Amino acid sequence: MKVNLRIWRQKGPDAPGAFQDFSGVEVVPEMSFLEMLDEVNRDLEAKGQEPVVFDSDCREGICGSCGAVVDGTAHGPGRQQTLCQLHMRSFQDGDTITVEPWRAAAFPVVRDLMVDRSAFDRIIQAGGYVTARTGSAPDANAVPIGKPEADAAFDAATCIGCGACVAACPNASAMLFVSAKSGHLGLLPQGQPQRYSRAEAMVQTMDGEGFGGCSNHGECEAACPKGIGVSYIARLNRDLLRAASGAASK
Amino acid sequence: MSALTSLVRSTIGKKVVMGLTGLIMVGWLVLHTTGNLLIFAGQDAFNHYAHFIQSGFGVEPQLLWLMRIALVIAVGAHIWAAVGLTARNRSARPVAYAGGRKDAATTYAARFMMGAGVVLLLYVAFHLAHLTVGAFSDHPVMPTTFSKVDAYANLVHGVGVPFVGALYILANLALGAHLYHGVGSGLQTLGADGPTWTPLKARLTLWVPLFIAGGNLVIALTCMFGVGVLIDAPDPAWVSPH
To answer: Exposed site from A140, B5, B78, B143, fewest CB < 10 Å?
Structure first.
């Protein structure tokens, strides 16, 4: 099958960008979207042209490196998948596919489809950790954790930090990411001592990075390759309200 | 920095202000609509209710002003938060998606919160001038006489003017849309989520706007097309002050 591609090309963060058209690109339905881009790049290199720059690493949906907005949807059509898990069988012969980088002030374009997501790293540095005494690992069952709490914490912990929530949000808000990261630690006993200071510090950093605010559109949840729900956002807000009301320090 | 200061300064603090003031207004609107529906109980019942409000709920006339001031503060804070957050949200995505961004989960109501909000602000100004102040009494395009005592006639005849009724209908459609997103969004922002709240939130999201906007729409339509149902003959008792 053949598809036409419109891929965003941009030489650097401050350079003006534009779509480059590739018509009649030969693909097979079994190809992943990134393999298709690899083929495009092989052709470009053969012609002595600059390949399309994009992030990728594990190519099995667990690292959070890849991501682009395909036909207006973060990670492309289909639910709960990353760009590397999108396959060309999701498209029809003759389709024109538009590919753009994540668009957010906090995620400046590095080049083509690659954006700088270090804002997420700084949010994690602000509070996405548990201060623990080092030493040999404690027994796995030393701290009892209820099944519902363990499940909820694990669901939040599946966040791979790909940034699709920000890309899909009409406000470019990072609330789903921040709420998942503060939630997965805040749900567990080990995360309790810093539960409220963590929530505060992460939100403060999130705001400082220039992400938008949450308007409860729910686009993040729909775009999340791990299906993380907006319940975590409500939970983060509860933690902040509890901290602000002084109830958390009692 | 204390937790309270840091919350107030954050985007979430603004969202909390928006949610709290919104829910205050929703609570007030439920009462207002319930009062409006007394129109179907007749002229006497409605005018006695109006008099009860004007007399400061039968306690102290100043109470009415206290309520008005509280509402103005709520509206002001709601707008302050909305403007601040909208500006921030715009600047969070300075370069739009050149190929467009597809909505997967959101609603039209959610996308047009700001637009509906502006419509509602204009509507509230008109509504107050129309039925509280009586600024359009015997106006050439609104040929109804405003009575200080007969709130029932003001409503029935005032909203009965076709283009005025149409304005009320449009405004209440905007109100319904605004509430359809606002009620659930406000509760979510305030952290209402879980086995109890999630299903309750879904029900409130539907029923609260349906009651408020739906109730007012029925009243407006009745004033426009069914005045006969409401008034057979004007009651002379309400022509002069009680």
So the answer is: A140
B192·A246 Cβ contact <8 A: no
Listed residue (A91, A106, A113) closest to A29, CA to CA: A91
B35 near B155, Cβ under 8 Å?
Answer: no
The third-level CATH classification (topology) of the domain covering A118-249 is: Fumarate Reductase Iron-sulfur Protein; Chain B, domain 2 (1.10.1060)
Q: Which CATH architecture has domain A2-110?
A: Roll (3.10)
In terms of phi and psi (left: phi > 0; alpha: psi -120 to 50; beta: otherwise), the region of A213 is: beta
The predicted structure's pLDDT at residue B242: 44
pLDDT tens, A171-199? 999 999 999 999 999 999 989 999 999 99
CB contacts of B192 in chain A (<8 Å) are 234
Domain ranges within chain A, ordered by starting residue: 2-110, 118-249
Q: Choosing among A103, A107, A165, which should be mutated to test the B contact, i.e. which has the most B CBs within 10 A?
A: A103
Between A and B, how many CB-CB pairs are < 8 A? 152
E strands, chain A, are 2-9, 18-26, 69-70, 73-74, 96-100, 109-111, 114-115
